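step 4 of 6: structure.
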Amino acid sequence: MPASPESIRNTVEAYIKSVATGTADDILALYADGATVEDPVGTPVRTTRESIREFYQVIEPLEQEAELVTLRIAANTAAFHFRLITKMGDQTLEIAPIDVMEFDDDGKIVSMRAVWSQEDMITG
Amino acid sequence: MPASPESIRNTVEAYIKSVATGTADDILALYADGATVEDPVGTPVRTTRESIREFYQVIEPLEQEAELVTLRIAANTAAFHFRLITKMGDQTLEIAPIDVMEFDDDGKIVSMRAVWSQEDMITG
């Protein structure tokens, strides 16, 4: 049976929370084996757990807040707009991508593609 | 050369305007030959111009307003949240999907996948 919308929503909410305040391993636990990550779209696709862990380890030490803005779910796919604010001393860096994820029957992420560009970054 | 972000933005804005107030042929003109439409994700993919025209002809006679809420662009891909309000007598029906589109080098749409479900519909 395909993942329910509730299961997909739970994974998305856990993902956003983990990106902001969790560890790389917390995030990895939401991904299925064999999952792929393309962030942003147009950059090389990460196809191994090691390369996906490496991607999230970069942001693990940062002080971040995240917020889900809009989530849409259809079949095994979610698209969501979320806001990630990184604090760096007195400054903040805000990125608010639209991520597109596909899920397996257990509600684990099998692919993630993030749609955003440098122009969407806001420094404050 | 891949389509520029400006070219992609222009196509998305023309798409939203055409969906609200244009004809099916206005919308078709934004699609490349061989384009595919999956709306919502999980339903059969439309792969012919006839089946894509048929899809948009259903909404052509409706009185609609549309508004772009959020647009993100990366490489040849756009993801955007937009609001489509249909007036039916005294009632309104609002759908606000997140659409994911890929574009060819001329900025024409090669694939459209709309992420939304019945639960996202708002009647007023």
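step 5 of 6: annotate
 - The first strand of chain B starts at residue 31 and ends at 38.
 - Residues 5-21 of chain B form the longest helix (17 residues).
step 6 of 6: archive
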